[in-house]
């Protein structure tokens, strides 16, 4: 049995919209045996504040070992190289 690596995922789940890229990123992390700290951004204000704080244009954003990996496509590229 191997130790799980930890990842933090910030993703948008608004009352009228769940970001499909966030769902995809979570599934990719779980499929790659990561323990996911799933941080849900529940309002447009939370999403906008997070993006401003991080200096990013989009959610989701994945962090592994304290390093920002990026969104779901960047995550898949990162995992392909590791």
UniProtKB/TrEMBL annotation:
SUPFAM superfamilies: Thioredoxin-like. Residues 9-69 form the Glutaredoxin domain. InterPro entries: Glutaredoxin, Glutaredoxin_subgr, Thioredoxin-like_sf. PROSITE patterns: GLUTAREDOXIN_2 (PS51354). This is Glutaredoxin domain-containing protein. It comes from Tsuneonella deserti.
């Amino acid at each position: 049995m191997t130790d799980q690596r930890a990842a933090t995922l910030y993703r948008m789940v608004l009352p009228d919209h769940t970001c499909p890229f966030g769902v995809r990123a979570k599934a990719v992390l779980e499929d790659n045996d990561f323990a996911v700290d799933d941080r849900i951004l529940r309002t447009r204000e939370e999403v906008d504040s997070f993006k401003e704080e991080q200096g990013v244009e989009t959610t989701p954003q994945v962090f592994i070992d304290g390093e920002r990996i990026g969104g779901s496509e960047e995550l898949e590229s990162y995992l392909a190289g590791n």
